[in-house]
């Protein structure tokens, strides 16, 4: 389940042919490249675009190291803003290159208290956030290498929880120096990696960007880089730890000479070949899934390798999406790979299963009740159901293995409740479901969603759009779980009526289906208790295996259902991370909005 991309930190020699330079990297087996813009900006945006296209054609993942003067801790405000401008420019060049992340240092600690430095860093990130948050480029903050610098993994984790565009970058030479040379065993690397996995959401470290070089250090931390082999840091134990933990990693050699690059790469390859997973790939499609799973045949079933809970699969080569030849194995692999992003959106929520035992061309059915043949480790929550006569047991997805199990029983779609088992009567978001009626156009749906964005702003709320993956578009309004389902449904209905009144040519709230023709229906009943919609990142049972995908508001109108599938969502995640992370945060109530709509008396 491990994918490791190795690359070097190097600019093409001046005057060198870019094609020949990149082809040379590929011939050596490299799959990544860091461009060290550490002293300034040697390339213009157009040059970056051209180079980025050439790299993409060769499946080389690019990153950019920002100038050393582009830090976040500078006390002087004017110099601090100049530094931020350099960081912003690096991120814009990263966008032109197609780089999912740029690397930057925090800067000096200036002998100040950590709390004061964090406050300054937050103010700087607040300043730059509106300019960079939608670039699709992560700001990779690098771990500090000496006591005069700022930035531990804990500091990065705190900022990453507050700023969606922040990413961790582990410089192993820096960690080695700051721990007094402790990174000499597989277990030492594994302890740091375990902290990373516990401290950052899965999508943020899928893959984890790291840097590697040998170094000399003293009591205050790193002194200088040295040729590989002259110090005490070795890459082999890192590769062993990463593979045993099933992580994915982009490893950039920051050695100062080509010989050291080669020695590091040789050792990486040696350990990648000696630590491997037996068996055959689970997936059959030519999709570059992260965290690839290998399976071993056991009678009529298949056993996945490197999993934490006992599980087996059946009929993994059965075609589930005939036009694309995607199999059940591909479906299981998708849900395995998407797990770090999807699981937070399913956490604690009862799931209605949409099952297609013979693939999307065969019969299907919804199943709410836990079927009884689920593994003992599957989590079950009781839910009171008037329609089904009392309390029934629902399943909950709380692990990668649980998603594997759902997919193995041909649950193509994941339909979670709007509320969690902890607050079953209080949804944690409101959903505006824009459902195109017969004869309506995608442009009308986009017009409705954009009008809703304005309306939400006027009543003091923020919404987040998502392609349904099928016909429509959903806008989620995150809420604190303090309002009952009837109140949330009424709010969506009232605001929907305003939308229909403001744009009667495109939007309707008519219950009579013939009267909806040529318009987009706002289905506020999706907010009733027991109603569900396909989760963000759920596969939909349609040709191409489309995915219900969160969007930026700028993308509403640019992307349509079917554009994002199980095959191409991965680069998007590497660029944007989880655009629906704010939905998980809640933080909004309906009180102010109801006052604005004049329905406060209905509380």
List keywords for this structure.
603 residues; alpha/beta; TIM Barrel; DNA primase, PRIM domain; 3 domains; eight-stranded parallel β-barrel; six-stranded mixed sheet; 34% helix; 20% strand; globular
Written overview of the protein:
By secondary structure, the protein is an alpha/beta fold. It has three domains: about 5-275, Divalent-metal-dependent TIM barrel enzymes (TIM Barrel); about 280-415, DNA primase, PRIM domain (Alpha-Beta Complex); about 430-600, Alpha-Beta Complex (DNA primase, PRIM domain), CATH 3.90.920. Helices cover about 35% and strands about 20% of the residues. It is built from 17 helices and 27 strands. The protein has an eight-stranded parallel β-barrel with strand order 1-2-3-4-5-6-7-10, surrounded by six helices. It has a six-stranded mixed β-sheet with strand order 25-26-22-24-23-27. Strands 11-12-13-14 form a four-stranded antiparallel β-sheet, with no helix packed on it. Helix 5 links the parallel strand 5 and strand 6 (about 165-170). Helix 2 crosses helix 3 and helix 7 (about 185-200) packs across helix 8 (about 235-245). The longest helix is centred in the N-terminal third of the chain and has 21 residues, at about 75-95. It starts with a strand and ends in a 6-residue tail after the last helix.
